[in-house]
Amino acid sequence: MVSxxxxxxMDSLASLLPKIEAGxxxxxxxxxxxxxxxxxxxMEEADKLLGTCGVEAIxxxxxxxxxxxxxxxxxxxxxxxxxxxxxxxxxWGSWVEAxxxxxx
Length: 104
Known about the structure:
The chain has 104 residues and is an alpha+beta fold. The protein has helices spanning 10-16, 22-33, 39-50, 92-98, 100-103; strands spanning 55-58, 65-68, 77-81, 86-90.
């Protein structure tokens, strides 16, 4: 089973993605918390709600890092880490820099 990282409050999610409407953020949060919804479906729906340019992944032997593509390496977006089996909000560029052995 996939463990789901919870976003502690809607305020914390809104502070990470301030330009996204509250209703869209609520829908993303609900989907992340609902273990009956596949990771792929969460990411695809989040892509539509965030208005990003598709879902992409950076692979490694430990597992891929999936992200909604903002068109900017350091653009804040929804991420899913296969190794840690968790969702988070951040940017994929910082992950690659933070874990060079994993993504190098």
